Amino acid sequence: MKRIMITGSLGQIGSELALYLANIYGEENILVTDLAEKTLPDLANLAYKKLDVTDFAAFKQAAQDFAADTIMHLAAILSARGETMPQTTYKVNMNGLFNALEVARELHLQLFCPSSIGSFGPGTPMDNTPQDTLQRPETMYGVTKVSGELLCDYYYKRFGVDARGVRFPGLISWKTLPGQGTTDYAVHIYYAAIKEKSYTSYIKANTFMDMMYLPDALQAIVDLMEAPAEKLQHRNAFNVSAMSVDPEMIAASIRKFIPEFTLKYEVDPVRQQIAESWPNSLDVSAAKKEWNFKARYDLDKMTEDMLSNLRVKLG
Ligand code: NAD
Ligand code: AKB
Q1: Which residues form the NAD-dependent epimerase/dehydratase domain (predicted)?
Q2: pLDDT tens-digit series, residues 107-139
Q3: pLDDT at 87 over 90
Q4: How far apart are CA 291 and CA 273, in angstroms?
Q5: Any residues with Cβ below 6 Å from ligand 1, and which?
Q6: At what angle are helices 185-195 and 247-255 packed, to 10 degrees?
Q7: Complex-level ipTM
Q8: Whose CA is closest to atom 7 on ligand 2?
Q9: Which ligand is nearest to the CA of 173?
Q10: Active site positions, annotated
Q11: How far is the CA of 172 from the centre of ligand 2 (A)?
């Protein structure tokens, strides 16, 4: 039985991952941590510890006190917010991951850390982006993500730390809003579809990025962490994705359920430039081959589920 400590648990992924893992491994085996004093009502049955991941001593103590055997390290600052505070982004993303790896090394824990399509840059092949390719990102977020991929590989090779990870695309979900990334429009558009039947996109039409519905991302985390080690040729930074979409494609999908939905544009140059430096579509064959990665939601299936959940949530 696993004992899993999650960092950055109150964000878009962690707030749902904690419950997902609790259903599989038992509520008593999940420790939720984040910067905030109080946790979310949905997570009330899980153990909670306030933790700043840049504080190594507190990080190690929390893992030791809980007798964790796994860390799922989600604490980070995302791409768009990162450009407003690059120094803090470096500190949280790099020092936080370094601490997570050191705790994992000292206490012999398994570690999950997600990278991102943000680890790629303008020189990367944009279509069917290979698993192993040029990575020269131009955001602080991207710099920390590609460095994190290398650091995780290093800790595995040098110290035998069982560090695993994926490169997530933009994740779409309805429970918790995204944390100021570049792909957030693909979540906000669904909220606006329910509330106003109209959305103004900060990303231009015809700008393609990979996306995936959160339930597929949660399943991918568990599948990768449970995969037999001998099957993994890569360990970290597996490309994963379910769809390559632009704002018009999402709008067309929404119109299948809300025919009067309209889409307008007011482009944000900062996020547009970041989006253009990221791949249009990823090659996910390594994840399929090495641990049977599979996404169950395509665009229309995800749209139907997003809209029906948001109708209830937003009244
Ligand atoms: P989020 O912004 O929604 O949540 C991040 C959480 O980290 C927040 O709850 C925040 O309070 C916490 N945090 C920030 N600084 C901290 C600190 N110093 N100590 C402890 N906690 C701190 O992010 P998310 O979308 O849940 O992303 C989680 C991970 O997944 C990140 O590494 C991110 O890069 C990666 N990822 C996310 C996406 C996506 O679309 N959501 C895509 C690719 C990769
Ligand atoms: C962001 O846009 O910053 C994130 C990501 C793809 O890493 N959603």
Answers
A1: 4-240
A2: 999 999 999 999 999 999 999 999 999 999 999
A3: yes
A4: 33
A5: 7-8, 10-14, 34-35, 51-54, 74-76, 78, 92, 96, 114, 116, 168, 170-171, 178-179, 181, 183
A6: 30
A7: 0.99
A8: 116
A9: 1
A10: 141
A11: 10
181-212 pLDDT tens trace: 999 999 999 999 999 999 999 999 999 999 99
- What is the arrangement of strands in the sheet containing 30-34, beginning at the earlier edge strand? 47-50, 30-34, 4-7, 70-73, 110-112, 163-164
Q: Ligand 2 within 6 A of 118 CB?
A: yes
Ligand 2 near 114 CB (within 6 A): no
pLDDT of residue 256: 98
Q: Which residues contact 202 (CB under 8 A, 6 or more apart)?
A: 185, 266, 267, 268, 271, 272
Which residue in this structure is represented by tokens 């100021």?
A: 180
Q: Which atom of ligand 1 lies at the shortest distance from residue 171's CA?
A: 40
Give the largest CA-CA distance in the chain: 57
169 within 8 A of 210, measured Cβ to Cβ? yes
* Binding site membership of 78 for ligand 2 (Cβ less than 6 Å): yes
C-alpha distance from residue 18 to each of 8, 91, 233 (Å):
11, 25, 28
Of 302, 154, 119, 293, nearest to 221 by C-alpha is 293
Cβ of 116 closer than 6 Å to ligand 2, yes or no, is: yes
